[in-house]
Amino acid sequence: MKKFSxxxxxxxxxxxxxxxxxxxxxxxxxxxxxxxxxxxxxxEANYAPxxxxxxxxxxxFDVDFMNAVAVEAGYEIELVxxxxxxxxxxxxxxxxxxxxxxxTINDEREQTYDFSVPYYLSTNEILVPEGSDIKSAADLKGxxxxxxxxxxxxxxxxxxxxxxxxxxxKFDNNNLAILELLSGGADAVVADNAVVQEYAKNxxxxxxxxxxxxxxxxxxxxxxxxPKGSELKADFDxxxxxxxxxxxxxxxxxxxxxxEPDVATILAEQK
Length: 271
Hints:
This protein is α/β, with parallel strands linked by helices and 271 residues long. The chain has two domains: 38-119 and 223-269, D-Maltodextrin-Binding Protein, domain 2, CATH 3.40.190.10; 123-219, D-Maltodextrin-Binding Protein, domain 2. The protein contains ten helices and 15 strands. The strands form five sheets. The protein has a five-stranded mixed β-sheet, sandwiched between helices. It has a three-stranded parallel β-sheet with strand order 5-1-6. A three-stranded antiparallel β-sheet has the order 2-3-4. Helix 5 (152-161) links the parallel strand 10 (145-148) and strand 11 (168-171). Helix 2 (61-73) packs across helix 8 (232-245) and helix 2 (61-73) packs antiparallel against helix 9. The longest helix has 29 residues, at 2-30. The protein is globular, with a radius of gyration of 23 Å. Residues 1-19 form the signal peptide. It is found in: Cell envelope.
């Protein structure tokens, strides 16, 4: 009889512990306890000044922006460095809740993903050695051009040279594309303006020039990228707009770029 009583007590304690453990797990997984879950955010930490590694820590403009937006939206986040191409797979297959890394919103991507309202105005620019005869986008014809594969930089160059042209060299990250230029394997690099400007500023000994061409390259807008049908989009649309309007975005932008952002143009682009 005594053994039976002890057995009953053990079973009751086990059930209580199991219930407690189950409650904690469900709250983290789907937020049923009323607390919003911690979000996994995929990124590519080789894209300075937007996302990059500094002493092993992921940092950059996009990181500070993402943290501010997450606080405004009421979510905890974890940034995971997965690489450029895997970033898109992670979000599409819902292995990550969303992605951020200077991702341009365009018609092709919107067929597969949902995007937040825009948060950054960008354009492509050309990085060349000093003294280069390349002075505009049109001058890229007949030249070997290095790009980050799967980007609007690649699309822009393909619009000039032709799709899958032999003179377009595609790389897994911008640093490799720039190394190809420095080694003489390419005549130019086409990438986001902030990327080429940041590299040229931080490496004056490389003697590089930046070519701007507003007529040759269209304006682009970055957005947070979600799986199709994500319920998170609504929360983050509100948060992004709030950050743009309340001065937080301007402060972060000036810290990273030393200039004032064109907030009015970004807000005007929001649909």
